[in-house]
Amino acid sequence: MKMALAAENKTKPKKKKKEPLTLRRILIDLFKLYVFYVLLSLIIIFGVKDKLVLFPSQDMSWKACLPILDRDLKCQTSKISIPTGNGNKLAGLYIKNPRSKFLTIVNHGNAGNIGHRIVIAANLVGAGSSVLLYDYQGYGESSGEAKLSNLVPDAEAAYDYAINKLGYASSSIILYGESIGCGVTSGVMKDRTPHAFILQSPFVSLMKTAKDKLFFMRTLPDFIDPEPQLNNLAAVERKHPPLLLMHGDKDNTLPCKYSQELFEKASEPKEIFLVKGADHNDIYCRGDNSVFLTLKKFIESI
Hints:
Helix content is 40%, strand content 18%. It has a single domain, classed as Alpha/Beta hydrolase fold, catalytic domain (Rossmann fold, 3-Layer(aba) Sandwich), CATH 3.40.50.1820. The chain has helices spanning 2-11, 23-53, 66-73, 118-127, 148-164, 180-188, 206-213, 232-237, 257-265, 290-301, and strands spanning 55-56, 76-83, 89-96, 103-107, 111-112, 130-134, 173-178, 196-200, 243-248, 270-275. The strands form 2 sheets. An 8-stranded mixed β-sheet has the order 2-3-6-4-7-8-9-10, with helices on both faces. The chain has a two-stranded parallel ribbon with strand order 1-5. It has 10 helices and 10 strands. The N and C termini lie far apart (105 Å). The protein is an alpha/beta fold.
């Protein structure tokens, strides 16, 4: 009996001793948790970033206003179709101002479509420029899919269309970026040099804005900066054509501190105009026409 018990005890597996909770063990567990956190954040960034950032609209009811636009601005508006590098077509409007040699290409924000930028176009025409409005892929009547990776190539296609089809030289082109379109404008300027550029309600970079707005992004290491970077700071720090920054001083979406930082770090020539009392989407709603007058002065000076 004793021999049987002894044999049973020998064959019974010994329980593993629990590893004591040491500082080293705590640090290893925290590191594993951080790696998991980073991987989860990257899945979010790369998996759903387009839907988190882009809000295209296909509402075309604004087109009823086009005859009024031509009448009031004494311009001729033409519908255009811009081919993209991936085989899609960008729908756009070419508003020709017969009294100007300049063409301003508007790279618009992340929501709506060109119909929501008619006010911008009207002010630019009044300030002394023709205007090219176009929609990114997936916006308005443009074919394709709304993706962050398409924004800069679409803007480059619009720029090249202005040169090759509309007959403008780079020395007559002004780039106008609105909100996320500021980053698009900066992306275009890596390989193309317009005569001047305007950044309305910009950010410093897309990643910095994401870290400011999304708490889980703040712990990501700095080397993680997915494409497209849409880095306005990099564009204004290097040598560039005349720059005008405009921003509402009550902007709750992209605070005006971004424009102030860009202006402080930008090389010359540069100007900044903070619109008193304006939020993100209403800088053209001021009763004093201050934005229009700023645009006019800037275009006349370049």
